[in-house]
Batch of 3 targets.
Target 1
Amino acid sequence: MEVLKRLFAEHFHSPVERVQPLQGQLGGSGRKIIRLASESVSAIGILYDVREENVAFLEFSRHFRRHGLPVPEIYAEDLSHNAYLEEDLGNTTLFESLSDHRDGPIIAPEAVAAYRKVVAVLPRFQVEAGRDLNYKVCYPRSSFDRQSIAWDLNYFKYYFLRLAGIPFNEQALEHDFSHLTKFLLSASRDYFLYRDFQSRNIMLRKVLGEDQPFFLDYQGGRKGALQYDIASLLYDAKADLPPDLRQQLLDHYLDNLAGFLGLDRAVFMQFYYAYVYVRIMQAMGAYGFRGFYERKEHFLQSVPYALKNLRWLLHNVELPIALPALMEAFKSMVASEKLQGLTSEPEKLTVRIFSFSFHRGLPQDETGNGGGFVFDGRSLPNPGREERFTTLTGKDAPVIDYLNQQESVHQFLASVMSLVDASVSAYQRRGFKHLMVSFGCTGGQHRSVYLAEQLAKHLRGKASDGVEVIVRHREQEQLNQ
């Protein structure tokens, strides 16, 4: 941590005043990701002891920025201490935005527009920036070659199929793996392959009033085929994109790709679904390793969505090559009682979050459970005392920025989130259906609204299913009636 504070002070000529860890036990990476901030600026610090990945990320970031691509600026680095400092791109991932703008299979136009922007940028990474990239710094391989594919397929075989108890004939499956690998390698592979192009590695932030995508986590990139990355995004398991939207986005991607090279769509599609399958297998290997092997059960919560994608593929796609043993394994997966147990939707825990004014009393618990947590935000700095905030609420950017700059607010929220997270876990384990959390302040306009929104965002962003979050701003609702 001290090396990050030193890099921050040297770059911004001001000391670190706030430190906020951003990645805990939910992540699959060993990287430590930390937000550091002074009174006026913030940055993201990375601590990671795999030097080769650090070098790749730094080299790629500078290269992509030279091509005008939206990736973080690198402020400072100290590779002797496995540390670097990069631009803070905010808190909203594409996945979180999608979650906030959907009602089951119905996805709001704002989320679709964000996805369209993302797929339109992808060819610039793959083709434009891929032409003169230094592939010598790629780690662990410079291309998605036979060895890379073998690692992914064996990852799937041993950490998912084996640990999930799916039966397979080892020799027959190896024969199919060999056949699939040969087919994949016959596609054109002279492009930059991002490798982990999915919704949690894409940030959205406002530029001139509109959400624009910014890109992260390409340090595993290498040379490879165009089909892999668009397959990664569109078959990103928990994003759970409807098939018709996947097709619309694929068409939009291909329209944009045609502006960078002579594109034969029929040839592209000949290989596309084979890359969809290999990406799904890579992801399921990761779910199995982290979930079945390391006992991090939240990784298994993505399995139902991956199985849903497999069912669709089995019913709607016929590959140009025969892979009987592999297809039989897929069919066993979607029929497995053990995996069907993972797919069964748990009954949701509904968390109702209220903001209110203490002058008007506590919110009533409509579920009949007598209420829940009540947090008093009146000890925090009050934006309502400043004239510039009088017509605004805790949902408006100037108020959010003001409160984000207060250390006491971060400490308050950290304590709240720790308590609520523990209760959510216990309530789910015990089968409870309702949890109520209320935030009060003087007027029910600034601090309580901000706190309620921040907790809601935290709960919606957690890698856990079975929680529905409902937010009510009591005083604001009454004003608008």
Note: Residues 356 and 362 are 7 Å apart (CA to CA).
Target 2
Amino acid sequence: MERVKAFLKRKDILFSATRYGVDAMGAMAQGLFASLLIGTIIQTIGQQTGLGFLAEAGGYAMAVAGPAMAASIGWALHAPPLVLFSLIAVGSAANTLGGAGGPLAVYIIAILACECGKLVSRETKVDILVTPAVTVLVGVGAAALCAPAIGRAASLVGSAIMWATELQPFLMGIAVSVLVGVALTLPISSAAICAALGLTGLAGGAAVAGCCAQMVGFAVLSFRENGIGGLVSQGLGTSMLQMPNILKNPRVWLPPTLAAAVTGPIATCVFGLEMNGPAISSGMGTCGLVGPIGVYTGWVESGAAPTGLDWLGLALVCFVLPGVLSWAFGLVLRRLGWIRDGDLTLAA
């Protein structure tokens, strides 16, 4: 047993929730961002401006989402070069065979293929043949056997959430907004979760509301401590920067979370805000304005001309209400002494 542990340690194979649930999932979201998401944005700009080159460039980026995700996961798992490059084929197979649940299939299968490839890496004199062969055959074989089932399962879960949101927009608006928003601030990837489940439509709109509530909420709530720099880094970057402060005083998480509980049902019941762009956009919030841009690309792709009410709803749900509500809830908690000066100061 000790020999096995020593071998796994030498191969840098660590079975841990942090490596697989945080590092790998976070990297997968970055791979999705660098392919499907940015490709969709560029393509939309090209289509709206009539610039064919941009539309074509966006299409190329979108086409390599599977390989980009798999390679990103391999990077997070410290894959050797031959394993990392072989994961490109694995990602393509898993994403294609996984259908609507392709991102989840890529996530699971890329981890399996990567770790198997690492096991044999540099163990033979013909490493240049053995390592890519094992990585590709394990990955593509697993994709052929499991990806369709994984894809269907992810699609069913996502469809159930979207169906429930259509059926009970108020309650599900609260639940989806709060849960996805909390996931965005935690050191896991809300974007990857939304992409894996294919969370779009009305449920996607609630997810956008929750993510925006966390990011804009923390940015406004902590303005007195962090100023403009904190406003930008949290409002356009990530609310995850507040995790050290949340661990010290969990009560600082209440204002943006309560704001999410309010904006979620407003998004679903009042404005009917839907995410019909890429599912990953549902879990991005105001990071690079990806969430609102995703709603806009959904309008474009559906051929629907947004009304003044649509624009008002987008502005209120994504920017105005998260800031106002979080500030108001925060003011109450500061007066109660639950949040003290300095509790929201970001680390240098």
Note: Residues 168-336 form one domain.
Target 3
Amino acid sequence: MIGASLRPEQKLLIAQALAEAGINSIEAGFPACGSSETEAVKIIAANLRGPVVMALCRALPGDIDAARVAFENANPFRSSVNIFLATSKLHREVKLRKSKIEILEMISSSIHYARKSFRLVSFSPEDASRTEPDFLCEAYKEAIDAGATSVSFPDTVGIMTPEQVRKSIRYIREHVSALDKIPLAAHFHDDLGLATANTLAAIEEGVRVVQCTINGLGERAGNASLEEVALTLSVHSEQYKCRHSVKLDHLTSLSHLVARETGIPVAPNKSVVGSHVFSTEAGVHQDGLMKDIDTYLPFRPALVGGKDAVLVIGKHSGRAAIEAYLNKRGYYFSSDMLDRILVEVQKDTESKPSDREFLLLNAVAHVTAHNVGAPS
């Protein structure tokens, strides 16, 4: 993602937090890109316990050699490479200028070469979603025959819909019998805002590995969001009927950590971990939340490690929320006075949420200044 450049020690910090949150595997870097990426993979592999650590590689011997150097002293059972090669007609003819036969040969030779150094080798057919289905299945078969221990289905440009995903995954599983023995992964980008929905559709069709990111970070519009996928699988466990190892109460702290280290803030209305998820200014919602917190929350904040629900005072707030807000601070007013304070609050159209307590107290001062004997 543009601007999300991390030093090796920052990557290690995030990787350790991911491991503590129960993540199964982490793609730690692209060693062929340079020494910083090599160092990141090296220190993560040396210091992490639990997850498989993966290095990204093109289908080139030099990339695989760079990964081997990065994993030189690592646990071989926890070290892996993810080899990618474009398979779509557009990429074959315009970017790579390779025939189908040449693409299949590159897949086979690179995986054979990688298996000399790595027990775990994944293959990703870049732009799979725009690849001819029959050729895509050929590519998977070639990869598996060469020794790939897992394969993925990348929607590289984020163009698919859930219905198309179901159809594609079903077709692949029907035509590549070896997928009964090795896992198929899903990799969706969010260009249409459908990455999470597409990932869930793939899971319903039998995919059991999800390639995703914290906060949905990633190229262009980003990738499928780990926090969205993991929470949905838990909230709707009866529908998806699959378990995961993610500790949901780590999601908010993970989100904050990644935002801090990358310098890319989380949108306040970001699902699951955004600051507005458990806050409301709407009077009707505030009244409901005060009576029963579940009236307007889809899940409790503690489930994802979030803070308690917050009633934000503003022009949309109702009388009940303002009364509760004032009572908590030691102010008690008659019904008539509260109505007048509400009118004053509703005049505010420009203030930021952080300024509204001051403005509310100003409204109190304005109203009480015109009422002899009003409470102080």
Note: Confidence is low (pLDDT under 50) at residues 372-376.
